[in-house]
Amino acid sequence: QITLKESGPTLVKPAETLTLTCSFSGFSLSSGVAVGWIRQPPGKALEWLGVIYWNGDKRYSPSLKNRITITKDTSKDQVDLTMANMDPVDTATYYCAHRRAYSGFAVDHWGQGTLVTVSS
Amino acid sequence: DIQVTQSPSSVSASVGDRVTITCRASQSISNWLAWYQQKPGKAPKLLIYSASTLESGVPSRFSGSGSGTEFTLTINSLQPEDFATYYCQQAKSFPAPFGGGTKVEI
Q1: Dmax over Cα atoms in chain A, in whole Å?
Q2: Does residue B100 sit at the A interface (CB-CB below 8 Å)?
Q3: Residues of chain A whose C-beta is under 8 A from some C-beta in B?
Q4: Digit-coded pLDDT (tens) for A79-99
């Protein structure tokens, strides 16, 4: 059974750096597997932020690529998201996502999500 | 980037109705399209991938069709638990954008 869970601060100040951790179980970051981050501002649509593949390859949203970094720790079954220079418009629920195999970027398992508020 | 446009943004329906939601891609994505259901305060749930393949455990009243640039999600015989927001997603290439969502309400 695949599970993912996000952890990290729920409140950050403008200009600060956010770091979230996705801890997962039920799979390993082995061949073909990819884990990423998706966010959803309150009342708005979903947005992929970035994804990391089992081999270390990464893809970032063009609109955010200068601000975000995704890393993995295979020994701990964790994937981290770091987002610099946070702004109130970055207030959103952040989801960790497991990409469905052989289905492009469809997501078959999601974390519960963590609401991050950016405010002074 | 390949964008997707979803319509309508909301639809009013009753239990037992058939509901159809449309998603259009800005260029051909073959069958690389997914559909999700999201209820308030919950993470999205994958319903359909590869445009028409039902995810395991999803009721058969949900169906997807289309290829290229035009796609449809159909919910036959709407049930009370189906009132939710539905999203399409271009799954071919990153950043794999989602549509704006369709809220199915009473």
Answers
A1: 43
A2: yes
A3: 45-48, 51, 59, 61-62, 95, 100, 103-108, 110-113
A4: 999 999 999 999 999 999 999
